[in-house]
Structure prediction request, 452 residues.
Amino acid sequence: MADFSRLREAVLTGNAPAAVAATRQALDAGVNPVELVNQAISPAMEEVGRLYEAGEYFVPELLLAARATKEVFQLIRPLLAQKDVPPAARVVLGTVQGDLHDIGKNLVGAMLEGGGFEVIDLGVNVAPEKFVLAVEEKQAQIVGLSALLTTTMPAMKKTLEVFRTAGIRGRVKVMIGGAPITQSYADSIGADAFGQNAGAAVAIARKLAGR
Amino acid sequence: MSPARNTPRRVTGAGKIPLAVEILSRLTIALRVPDILRSLGYPREATPPAQVVRSARQILTEARPWLQPHGTYALYAVTRLTAHSLEIGGATIAGNISEILHGAERVAVFMVTVGSEISRQAEARCRVGDAFAGLTLDAIGSWAAEAAAEALMKQLGSQLRPGESFTLRYSPGYCGMNLKQQRTLFKLAPAGSVGISLLPTLLMQPLKSISGIVGLGPRKVVGIHLSPCERCPQIGCHMRR
Prediction:
């Protein structure tokens, strides 16, 4: 039985070179890449998330772990595709129209990529119609909206209204986040989920993707 | 100690023209790795991993040339101060801030920035997949902007008369000052002269900019006032003092 402890440890400690080395060794030994995901990467990222929620890890540790898993996924993605294993889900991310803040969105993107999601980042100041185009073009299952000002929050509501008008609302799950955003606001505009921080993003996205 | 009661006070003869305006083209700030780690979310008692400390130190060294702290202030006489409004320079600022500025006889409207390069570099790092470096650069920019505001306050100290001190400083969007007050502040201080602009969404550009007001008044009056943080329910606010 293959030993995945080295890869798990490398992800847990955010050691990207060690994670890549352990992955190469496992693949050379004939390990199925799906097993690598199920037995090493996913459990390690879940533990990273648990440590963050417990206040033992902070955002930098999350990002270092996400970077390690992202590099591993870059290595195994072609092999997973050969086995018809899709990404966890396709997620379109963007900061809403009128807002130029991008760090929070970028952190969520990094975490989702580390969690095996395919991320399409539309950048900042994204008009609702651009989100619609991206969802249709990329067949995305999830949309993540970010806003950092009370004055730009209304653009989230407008974006969801445009989704309804365009007929795509029923096809995507929408998660929202940003400093002024609350669960109450998310409920009021009909978003499917609200993320308090980047650390929660992967768990929320998995739930929305039905995994 | 309970705050003194506010009573409306009107000063006659004071007008729209500021008492003083200063452009500070270079503010001296000091950034240390522990400050950046705090800005990255580590509480004082935490021991960040050696890798994080090492990377933060390296990124801070790299980032220093990308920071250009500078700012401006305009000093006004308070023409009217009530429980819910402050009049300076022919403009009215609404909100709890008048209570917070109790005792102030003059108010400085200030703006500082560290420029846009640090944000550009942060975004560029994220784009190439280095979110950790992007986050650290963003944290450096935020901390540097706060340090620039403190440096401006030191310069503003030259305006204090004997026996005077400052109130705490306040920015739109915090401590009961509505974000919409940003428009009034931008009318009162020469933001354009230091390259700071305000978007219709009230977002400042460059992103790492701070605007605000601070009162100057007799130390015996402004010094006894409670910090609004004592009564604020926003426990998680990163501006909590």
Observations:
- Residues 1-13 of chain B have pLDDT under 50 and may be disordered.
- Residues 131-156 of chain B form the longest helix (26 residues).
- The two ends of chain B are 17 Å apart (CA to CA).
